[in-house]
Amino acid sequence: MKQQVSIIAIFLFLTSHSMLPGHAHEVTFYGHNNCPFPIWPATAPNTGHPVVADGGFYLAPGETRSMIVPSPWNGRVWGRTGCNFTSNRQPACETGDCDGRLACNGSIGTPPVTLVQIALQAEKGKPNFYDVSLVDGYNLPISVTTRQSSTPKCSIGGCSKDLKYLCPQELQVRNKDGDVVACRSACLAFNVDSFCCRNQYGTPEKCKPTVYSKIFKDACPSYYSYAYDRPPPLINCEGKEYVITFCPSAWGTAHTTI
Fold this sequence. Notes:
Elements (H helix, E strand, L loop, with lengths): L4 H14 L6 E9 L6 E6 L18 E8 L1 E8 L34 E6 L7 E6 L3 E2 L3 E5 L16 H4 L5 E3 L5 E5 L1 H5 L2 H4 L14 H9 L15 E3 L3 E6 L12
Parallel strand pairs: 1-12
Antiparallel strand pairs: 1-3, 2-4, 4-5, 5-6, 6-11, 7-10, 8-12, 9-10
Family: Belongs to the thaumatin family.
Protein name: Thaumatin domain-containing protein
Keywords: Disulfide bond, Secreted, Signal
């Protein structure tokens, strides 16, 4: 179950406008792993946009890697966990797997994952748009900010609580050892219109927060907790460099400065 309704509408609008004539330029995203364990960040472009950083790479605890992204560009970034690409195991990752490959090469990761959605504008001086979404579920806390400015309006904070420990049993995703590695959204878990904001519930007036989305929102107030989250936690901020931090606060000892 992929991102839905209001988020799709916003990004279709931004995509169509970002393809208008203009002077293309490049933006740098720094992926920083603040988790006390390795992760495998992944990227996937929307239709018509190029693959960035081969679609996926390894990031050790405390490590940072830059990703050069052309403008305009629309797509998503997420973190994969528990991966092993040396075996024939399918899936290769416990969360966020993309067909068992290290380099996703445009493939979208298997939910549930915490998803960063990005829409870069074609012209310099125009604000870029980004958000973090739990519409399909959660696997890692993620923050996004500009590198040049500490302005709060340009920042998406991480989570105050770990949803893997708060996740209701019916939404839990467990690994082979029985550990909770992700939390599905109610839409992904139950595929019900009222949870998925579709059909007769396909408007902001009809689709309201649920007991499940409220758990998500309480833990991660800066993220989309469901498709018609209000006010929309969508950031528009100009910048040439952005930092995407996985596990941005109080996760072990892997704390380094970019």
